[in-house]
Amino acid sequence: MATMLLLCMIWGGQQITLKLSAPDITPTFQIGLRSLFAAVLVGLVMYFRREVFITVSTWRAGLWAGFFFGLEFLLVGEALHYTTASHTVVFLYTAPIFVALALHWYIPTERLHPLQWLGISCAFVGLALAFLGKSSPNTSAQLPYQLWGDLLALGSGLSWAATTVTIRCSVLAQAPTTQTLQYQLIISAIMILSMAGLLGQWHFNPSPIAISSLLFQVIIVSFFSYLAWFALLKKYIVSQLGVFSFMTPLFGVIAGVLILNEPLEANFIFGALLVIIGILLVSGKNWLLTQWAKQ
Description:
The chain has 13 helices and no strands. The chain is mostly helical. α2 crosses α9.
């Protein structure tokens, strides 16, 4: 529980540091560098463990997983140009909702429980509330840009879901976790750094904030947190870990308000709460049913 709380705080804060350091290093460029340097670190781990980097049976699925992973964070980087970090983290973490819907059709054993359908309904109502009725502090001139940023962030959630479904429904489900992560990091680094160059976003002012943010993104987010997550998946039941996922957007919203002084509209607060409840019902279905059975 302590490890999952720490991981949720890290994941909820990554968009905050990207936004905070944006004047000195663009989010898209920083994310690309994060993937590149993290790929080097994971590669060193694989080398010392004598693990295989690429296999004939996994490279095609690895390309798709890497593409969707890269698309996810490319959209995150662009979303942060237009909308707040609080909005970005909430819409990004709708991914479990879309994963549950996709696996319902692809894997017979992953059929949705009525409780999960309730969670999905809550999440989509929450999304509608979060998108509609923007209020003051956003002027009419800013509103189209924020809506575009929100849509990009929601697209990143869909891309994350596509990555998860690709891994679950391919040979990557049996591949070493470091190999799967390495595919994602290498391909995303190529994609995102290329797009950053095409968009003219290779600006980097090596200020203390920019360097600290980049170190946090590389070492803590892309290296430590992902390897810790995979280690937890090998030891604990996925449903028990998934129930904690609802806390990540919660931490992200709180950090956005406290650190970046981001405004929160009333409709977004209610919408975000419904999305978080939906994530809890979908990801924590088995845990919730177990707790109710004990009563």
